[in-house]
Design goal:
Helix content is 75%, strand content 0%. It has 451 residues and is mainly alpha-helical.
């Protein structure tokens, strides 16, 4: 190991006292979010416009009751999963990329890092394009200035500027914005029911739908939007002040995610059922016929993209770049913001793209599920909820290189997931978890990782 690398890991292992925009991979010493603040941060960060598209994608497959239950079940599965995988970060103050070293090894963490970073950057670009579209519609309506490319570039640089402030800035952005987001969602849901209620009631409630594989596939779609966050939840739980038990944490996660996901999924479902439109901007243009209220709604969409992106789509790939290339936090956030330009988000908002996004969620969930399981099995069954921080920050210690048990288990889980792609995340859990447990217990090459 080079001298510079040695110093980097030595610096990482020092306890970190937070300063705005100076995030670190070191164990977190200063925690800035109490229970209320933590719940509001997750609430503000879970306004994923992709949820509208997921709601649109189950039209014709599920009736209204089934769609509602699918969203609720998905959200409570998310809550349990976040509490389970966030426990290590919450207890030790470590981020996801450090947590993963005990299971995958220092070099092996590039796989979970890459699998987590790519969807985040794609969603970053997608949601930035949606936010820019909302701002452009406001500008075109009020001032006659219509230039979507200008607003996309400006909006992206605004988000990059906010992101470099670090978790202190993220905390206040999410907490302050949560009330506005909730009020806007309630209003939009009311407007949708008022406008389309009569024509929707018969078709949505009387259709048979499905309680079988399509129903459980729908629960996975709605949890799949957040399956990326299940992987790197330690990046956030390390910021939460100590004193919350597993049950309370599960409740905090589930109840922060459920309202936004339920409102947005059902709005997308109902408007698409009535109009056939999946583009969120057009969804609201159709649902709201009062210009001042439409402007407020569009500004909500733009604001919601900022709160979601800076929490969910900036921090994870930023920490991956910090770990892989030893970059500073601010440098990494700028690079992540620039990479979002390369996702061609204008192709993802087309009406015909709802199916494509559904496939995208199913595909990356097939990889995220096995990695999530490996991390949970490693922490609870192999480590017995006890981590050695010295080993986690020693690049030449027993966790050096790659733990092939984790890679093999991930591969087994991915194969199982693709064999039942409709419920890929669920299908991957037992095969990946069982494979990893057995290899870690009985396979010789894993000896140094389990001692």
């Amino acid at each position: 190991m080079s001298l510079s690398t040695s110093r980097s890991h030595a610096d990482d292992s020092a306890h970190h006292t937070k300063g705005a925009g100076h995030e670190s991979l070191a164990p977190q010493q200063t925690r800035i979010m109490g229970r209320g603040s933590y719940l509001l941060a997750w609430f503000g960060g879970c306004v994923s416009i992709g949820t509208f598209t997921m709601g649109s994608s189950v039209v014709g497959t599920l009736n209204l009751l089934q769609a509602t239950l699918a969203i609720a079940i998905g959200c409570f599965v998310i809550g349990i999963a976040l509490a389970l995988n966030g426990a290590a970060g919450y207890k030790y103050g470590i981020p996801f990329m450090v947590q993963a070293r005990s299971a995958f090894g220092f070099s092996g963490t590039r796989l979970p890092g890459l699998v987590r970073a790519v969807p985040a950057i794609v969603w970053y670009g997608f949601q930035s394009w949606i936010g820019a579209g909302a701002l452009n519609m406001v500008s075109a309506t009020l001032f006659g200035f219509d230039n979507l490319i200008f607003f996309f570039v400006a909006f992206q640089f605004l988000q990059i500027g906010l992101s470099v402030l670090g978790f202190q800035g993220i905390k206040w952005l999410e907490n302050i914005g949560s009330g506005f987001i909730l009020a806007s969602l309630v209003y939009m849901f009311y407007s949708t029911v008022q406008r389309y209620g009569d024509e929707l009631s018969a078709s949505m409630l009387t259709m048979d739908g499905s309680w079988g594989l399509p129903f459980w596939g729908a629960t996975m779609l709605f949890l799949g939007i957040y399956s990326t966050m299940m992987l790197n939840v330690s990046d956030y739980s390390r910021e939460h002040k100590e004193g919350s038990g597993p049950g309370l944490l599960t409740t905090l996660y589930a109840m922060s995610i459920l309202p936004c996901t339920l409102f947005m999924g059902l709005i997308g479902y109902m408007v698409s059922e009535a109009t056939g439109v999946a583009d969120p901007i057009q969804v609201f243009a159709n649902a709201v016929d009062n210009t001042p209220l439409l402007m407020t709604t569009l500004l909500f969409i733009a604001f919601a993209q900022v709160t979601t992106n800076v929490l969910n789509n900036v921090v994870p790939p930023t920490y991956v770049l910090m770990d892989a290339f030893k970059l500073k936090y601010r440098t990494a956030t700028v690079i992540v913001g620039l990479l979002a330009f390369a996702t061609f988000p204008w192709e993802l908002v087309k009406d015909e793209s709802a199916t494509g996004l559904q496939i995208f969620v199913q595909t990356y969930s097939a990889f995220l599920g096995p990695i999530f399981t490996v991390l949970v099995v490693d922490y609870y069954l192999i480590r017995r909820r006890t981590l050695d921080l010295g080993k986690l920050y020693d690049a030449q210690g027993p966790y050096r290189g790659i733990n092939y048990a984790a890679l093999i288990a991930t591969a087994v889980g991915v194969i199982a997931a693709f064999s039942v792609s409709t419920v890929s995340w669920y299908a991957s859990l037992i095969p990946a978890g069982l494979t990893y447990f057995l290899l870690m217990k009985h396979w010789g090459p894993c000896q140094r990782f389990r001692d």
